[in-house]
Automatic annotation (TrEMBL):
Family per record: Belongs to the multicopper oxidase family.
Reactions this protein catalyses: 4 hydroquinone + O2 = 4 benzosemiquinone + 2 H2O
Protein name: Laccase
Domain Plastocyanin-like: 31-145, 158-306, 415-548
Cofactor binding note: Binds 4 Cu cations per monomer.
Family annotation (InterPro entries): Cu-oxidase-like_N, Cu-oxidase_2nd, Cu-oxidase_C, Cu-oxidase_fam, Cu_oxidase_CS, Cu_oxidase_Cu_BS, Cupredoxin, CuRO_1_LCC
Subcellular location(s) per record: Secreted, Extracellular space, Apoplast
One Pfam entry name: Cu-oxidase
Taxonomy of the source species: Eukaryota, Viridiplantae, Streptophyta, Embryophyta, Tracheophyta
CDD domains on file: CuRO_1_LCC_plant (cd13849), CuRO_2_LCC_plant (cd13875), CuRO_3_LCC_plant (cd13897)
Keywords attached to this entry: Apoplast, Copper, Glycoprotein, Lignin degradation, Metal-binding, Oxidoreductase, Repeat, Secreted, Signal
GO biological process, one term: lignin catabolic process
GO cellular component entries: apoplast
SUPFAM superfamilies: Cupredoxins
Amino acid sequence: MAHSTIMFLTTFLLFFSSLAFAKTHYHDFVVQATKVTRLCKTRSSIRVNGQLPGPTLEVNNGDSLVIKVVNKAQYNVTIHWHGVRQIRTAWADGPEFITQCPIRPGGSYTYRFMISGQEGTLWWHAHSSWLRATVYGAIVIRPKEGDSYPFAKPNRESVIVLGEWWNANPIDVIRQATRSGGAPNVSDAYTINGQPGDLYNCSKKDTFIVPMGSGETNLIRVINAALNQQLFFTIAGHKLTVVGADASYVKPFTTSVLMLGPGQTTDVLIKGDQPPRQYYIAARAYASAQGAPFDNTTTTAILNYKTTATSAASNSNPIMPNLPPFNDTKTATAFTTSFRSPGKTLVPTTIDQNLFITAGLGINQCPINANSNTCQAPNGTRFTASMNNVSFVLPSNYSLLQAHHHGIPGVFTTDFPAKPPVKFDYTGNVSRSLWQPVRGTKVYKLKYGARVQVVLQGTSIFTAENHPIHLHGYDFYVVAEGIGNFDPKTDTARFNLVDPPLRNTVSLPVKGWAVIRFVADNPGTWIMHCHLDVHIGWGLAMVFVVDNGVGQLETLEQPPEDLPVC
């Protein structure tokens, strides 16, 4: 048989076998209010299938998902599959008024998409108002059938979803803040897999337990699903070997503490090499905004060695770990700068589009005759936020994707600035004249295949803080981060263009900057926003509109027939 024929048959068989192993997973998500008791109080809570967290989606790389979402709640809802690339399937991405109109009460929508080239941990959550406070769950992506992890197969796997709990209805909390113009009330607890843990009232009997065996290795998938808070995370007595983040593998490194911004995931290996007893798993706030109120409590779960059920040690209290102080930026920075890809990457080295985007808070002056109850930010003002001095406003009659795809005028403008309209000392004392942004639904257009660099620059307007910046539809390389104002003359030399980590959410350092790069190879309308939900509502967001390329494989699919209407 000719060599070329053998090569063809081998390639065909490999392609066929990959298709044969790929599965399609069907799920029904029913979003509705159910009674739940936490912190001694019972209230109605919006959840998926009555669960908190919602169902974990377990798939292999290459699989497809078909998820019918039925809205039996009283609020509009959408679901975002956080970190899923959604190649050509932007209609399934989920952010309200960006890629779809919301699913109205009584309505439904079926999300159809494929997991392609991603392995590790992602998650899903509501992307409408503050519903994601209780509407969220994990996505576990294992290697393709026949493939293996790039590390020894663990003996067991556990998912830990960090959340945030309010005794009040979270929708009421944000609506009250929107009326007042002030900051919303902080949460009453953090949670691990929906449970606050031993350090809160009325919570001890339901504390989540993670099983562990002596001599075993456990792959723990940690997700920060908190609404508004970066979190430190640790396990008493155990080293954490980081092997993945945001569904990309990383060069393994060992640490005693993680710092995750909302939206970020981190996969760690722990070894059962400690005396068999119980150890607390704990998380508390990393709160970088000086003087801003935050929930200063600690959530716990228990790492339970299987032998402890019959040992004397199980009668003693679990060992409590040391967590960093809430304002420990040094520890946060040491962690975020430890990430590398496992080998040489495809990071773009030639750039077609170079953007410089400021991200931070702002203040809107109230009209002279305004009711003081609507101006509860400092000095009788209202909080806002912006990127490049534009406070993003969601459309209401069409989604941006519909407007872009069908050429509907008047929904957005394409004049989002590629750099700040005024250059200033971004992290210094900023003139009050620069505190009030303009409002608008402005997007930035990218040609298919454009190689893009974005310098994200934090500001100290009103207060500086760490912002977890998430880009939909893409993974990006984080080539550098630093403190102060980004200086292209000196900071470019610090760029890692060999093995930068691939992420979907980057921690923009307090009073600092981060530089990301990606290739615009996915047509659609893709929002980039701060994943602190209070900041999204204030306008800390922008949208990239990526044009179709050439041919079917570079073109957005047609909209599904059941796409919700506004």
